[in-house]
Design goal:
The structure holds two protein chains of two kinds. By secondary structure, chain A is an all-alpha fold. Chain A has 15 helices and no strands. The relative contact order of chain A is 0.13. In chain B, the strands form four sheets. Chain B has a six-stranded mixed sheet with strand order 6-7-8-3-9-10, with helices on both faces. In chain B, strands 13-12-11-14-20 form a five-stranded antiparallel sheet. Chain B has a five-stranded antiparallel sheet with strand order 15-19-16-17-18, with no helix packed on it. The chains are: A mainly alpha, B alpha+beta. At the A-B interface, helix 9 and helix 10 of A face strand 6 and helix 2 of B.
Chain lengths: ~325, ~375
Amino acid sequence: MARRGRQALFFLLPMLILVVAFYILPLILTAWISFTPLTNWRVRDQLDDFVGLENYVNLYYLARYDPDFHKVLQTTLVFVTFTLFINVVGGLVLAILTYLIDERISLAYRLLWLLPRMTPLAVFGLLWYYFFYGGPQGTLNSFLLKLGVIDEPVRWGTDPAMLPYSAWAIIVFVNGLVGVSYGMIIFYSAFKNIPRELIIAARVDGARTWEVIRHILVPMVRWHIVFVTVWQLLSLITSYTHLFVLVQWSVVDKWYGTTLALYVFNTAFFDVKNQGFAAAAAVILVIIGSILGLVTLRIMRFSQMISPPRGDI
Amino acid sequence: MVEVRLEGVTKRFGRVTAVNNVNLTFGDGEFTALLGPSGSGKSTILYLVAGIYKPSKGRIYFGDRDVTDLMPNERNIGLVFQNYALYPHMTVYDNIAFPLKLRKTPPEVIRDKVLEVAKFLHIHELLDRYPAQLSGGQQQRVALARALVKEPEVLLLDEPLSNLDALLRIKIRSELKRIQKELGVTAIYVTHDQSEALAMADKVVVINRGVIQQEAPPDTIYNEPRNVFVASFIGSPPANIFPATMDYTEEPCINLPGGTRHCVEDEYASVLWRMKPSKVIVGFRPEHAEIVENPVDGRPVIVGEVYTVEPLGRENIVTVASEDIHLKVITPPEVRPEAGELVYVAVEKGKLMLFDPQTEVNLRYIAREWSQGG
């Protein structure tokens, strides 16, 4: 048993080192910083200057009284919920479509949907900057002006009359476009692994296309759906890059385009450079993420899906 | 039940012709085996009958009904796959009930029918299990139950036994035949295993390269193969086949390898006289010959040297080399010659088969076609 333990350790070691160096240590460091008044990276003066729970107390007051921070929390909730829905359900729909059509068209179609993911962030951001630009030169505006649908250019993501919904719609749309291909690829390859005979058997048993989808395809990729849901949930809670570009270039309103993850980033590195406070918010974010991840696994009854390994390992 | 008829059916996949102008009738309530090597097009024919493939040319009929353009679910067929294709996320009960649920059958009726077919196949105690929890033989029965619960007019079986171990295969073989006769369903059974085909089927259809080679009862397939392919495909080991020259001085005589001659007297003689081929293809089954020390008059005899002896317990397979031809002979256990020994292979009277060297058709069939034609 001791020998097997050592063997297991040997094989786990490379991964353990990576996890410790790039996840556990930064996490401990972040938790540490969250108890200090660190601002503007004055590491030498402030890193050992403990202020107790002051940052957390400030965060509490902010959450209670600051209208901008309320907007951030609302935006986070809306953004994560709707983008997650698009990523999982949209990915599933795209995978089913590409699975059912001719292989060559399917390949072209999947590549098309992968483009947003392959496009560099700045280029992709610029594209939507032009598209939603508030002046008459903006792609959407000039298009609608020419068609006569609108009389004067619309500031799509920033016009107070349309907030918060227009800003939310834009950030969900842009992120959904990037994220939906992930689910599509995972589900598509899962469909490809279903034996062809099962589909033929279902057809012979009298199933129409819709019934094949409902009774065979979707139930057989249950595990993949759980995986994509949890994975996308956690990455949506913590990702901020696309939102950063959209907010920075004023494509969307600052507060209705900022999620908690972006708020942490801006607080630490961009706006006020208050690292102590940002670290406290980051710790809360990690806790929320962990709880939501576990709850999702529980809701989707993950434990029932894992079977004990076969044979002696 | 119903008769299944294929009329001039051709199926192409791109440039490959999998099935070429097939005319075939599967008798009402008959058990027909489609037998051929892999890639011969036998499964394609099955899938054409099922409606999974659409023929490139030709029509398919169930009785008087033209089903060529109907989808599988409109044809009332049951299909059993080689790997069973059970739905892994459903219990045995749900697997069997699935086709009925899709037909919007009332739940009480579904229950009754599933229980009935499960009892019939002795799987009624397994209904709560998942396919992964069943043995190969049990999965096979569930697959059969799922196909039968629809009360199909045609039962299609795609190598259903080849994933089972040898003993179970022989047991289920006889059981499958009993079930088919009991239900009187028209059955089409695809296999590459000749012993399955010969043991179970009322009629065997031998297919090669998308073309039907012979369509006959098992006995005829075995004893009177229509052409060289059927002779060399059926039998274990298959028939010995070799070319030989002819000599027509007084009678039609075959120059056999090793320098002996055999003059033909039976029904082949008249065909040979009329066609006068300078060469023929000769064949005989390993079990229709014996190894003798002295040539016996009248029997065709081939002289050769013993090459190998394979003792199988019940019998031996002796390979004899004569010129550059290797012949296999089945001998009783006590007849076990030494390798290198000079022996005579004597073929039973009337068991020599002769084939036309160009078309490879058995000359006996050519003779019959002539006598029928006038």
